[in-house]
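Most newcomers find our protein records easier to grasp once they have seen one. To make this concrete, we reproduce a full record directly below:

…
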Amino acid sequence: MICSGRDAASGEFLEIEFDEVIRSVRRTKPAGVNADTWIAPGLVDIQVNGFAGVDFNRPDTPHSEIQKALELIVSTGVTRCLPTVITGPKDDMVGCLRNLAAAKKALPLGKAIAGFHVEGPHIASVDGPRGAHPLDSVRPPDIEEYKRWQEATEGQIRLITLSAEYDSAPDYIRTIVRDGVTAGIGHTAATSDQIRAAVDAGATLSTHIGNAAHSILPKHPNYIWDQLAEDRLSASFIVDGIHLGASFLKSALRAKSVSRAVLVTDASAPAGAKPGRYVLGRQAADLTEDGRVVLAGTDRLAGSALKLNDGIANVMRMAGISLSEALAMATTHPARVIHLEARSKWLVTGERADLVTFRTGTGIAIDSVYIDGKRAV
């Protein structure tokens, strides 16, 4: 297969030859290639709870519905994603993971599932940091429960988000990191010492920093400043224009540098669907007319309705960064954070042939998507 376009990093015209991996990259302008067509690695979303009206946080979600969600996710340029299971009863969480792992094996687009993200249940129990996670299922880190998740997915847990405030968090982090799992700090009310201990133990990510926090914090120290100042932590951001304001986003990106920044959608079932009522696990969630996803009857955010291609356009507009920087935040950076094989470099020989072509203008308009060298869109 051959795919052509302007390199979104350099602006040069490229002709890429590939099968399952990239075989050659020629810097030339092929005949008939439009100057408005850009090419980049496929997008990587490491936090998605659902899409297209489909909730990943139910053990009985039909595989046909998961396929429908994946089709819409891939149409936004995402070639690899981590379906994300949030805080819930033990058996429910295991059931969700087992169902998603079976879907990964069975579905035509199952290859777009790069593994799984477990967000919770080992998070802060207090309002604010807990976010939309149900209080009755919050619990301390438990290695035996982690082993059940790995058994249910045949070892495909790639990312776990937990709070650093538990005494057992450092030992838990050391254990999962030894298995190759990324430890993210999130939904936390931890002290400076607790965050430092978690990072010393191997935590390398701040999950959707700036969200799932108290509405009022001490001037200093506080758990947001502590994480922004920690150079060993990358940070993920939900850039939908709702979760974060432009001033915080600009300041946070300057603190982390773009090189340690990752875009995520934190999409839940309403993403790509019409305003109305949906579910997130055992809870009802509403997509409002202005694009907010909230727990039913509250103003508490419950994920987002963001598409990752829109997140790229948003971060360029809100933070004043370049196309190449924004794309890195949605491609190579998340791949590096979760140790995604053959996806942490740009368009070079030997990398997996996950490719996307697109046009710019009012946003990022996806033209074609290739996964493992096969056209998916």
In short: The mean pLDDT is 97. Residues 41-344 form a domain with the TIM Barrel fold (CATH 3.20.20.140).
